[in-house]
Amino acid sequence: MSFTSGNFRGYDEDRSVVLFSMINDLTEVPCAISSDAMDFLDGAKRTPPAQREQQFMRLRESIERCAERKFANAEMEGRPPGIILRRLDFRG
Asked: Strand runs (DSSP E) across 13-55, as ranges?
C-alpha cells in the first residue's frame, strides 16, 4: 500500500474545513481538516480564510502524517468515504 500526497482542493468557508486529497495506490481519497485543528497545530487563532492555503502548505507534512495514520486504522467517514481530521486527532 502506498499512501501519498494528493492535491489541495480549497477552503470550504461554510464548513470551516480545508479540503485536500491523498492517493492510495491509484485511488484518490478525499480528506478534510477543520480550521480549528489547523489553528491548533499552528499555534494561531482564527486564521483568515484567505490564508488557509498558505497555512495548509506550511503544516502539510503533519496533516498528511495524521491522515495516513487514520487511513491505516480504517477510520474513514462520510459518503464517499474519506478522512476527516479534527483538533483531537493531533493531541498527544
From this structure: 17-24, 27-34
Residue-wise DSSP of 60-81: HHHHHHHHHHHHHTT--BTTTT
> Can you tell me which residue has the cell 497545530?
41
Does CATH place domain 3-90 in 3.30.420.10?
no
**Claim: this prediction has a pTM higher than 0.85:** yes
DSSP state of 12: E
pLDDT tens figures, 32-56: 999 999 999 999 999 999 999 999 9
pLDDT of residue 92: 66
Cis peptide before 80 (omega within 30 of 0): yes
